[in-house]
Fold:
Amino acid sequence: MNVCLSFKSNGAIANLQVKPVLLEQVQDAQKLDQKLVKQVEEVQNGRESDFSLKKDGTLFYKNRLRVSNDDELRKQILIEEHSLPYAMHPRGTKMYRTIKEHYWWSGMKKDIAKFISK
Structure:
């Protein structure tokens, strides 16, 4: 995680922000994926009802972060979710339910099943 500390003139901490690196990577990848760039344009023109844009321009699908077609990024999401302390090495169905609360990509369920089977 990236941590940004802000200090007042007297040295006291005024603000602590924690922004996951993974979110930044998904946002960056969205800008490089031509299919997602087109979806962003369609949302901006009011033609996509299931997709939405946050104020920072991040694309979401049904309130879930839309992940680009980047195998390494998807793998990184799976590894991070699988290794969380509270995950307790979930099986495919549990892991899918957990991940789908926050992320979406085409073929996600299949990717999770394949990841778990390894």
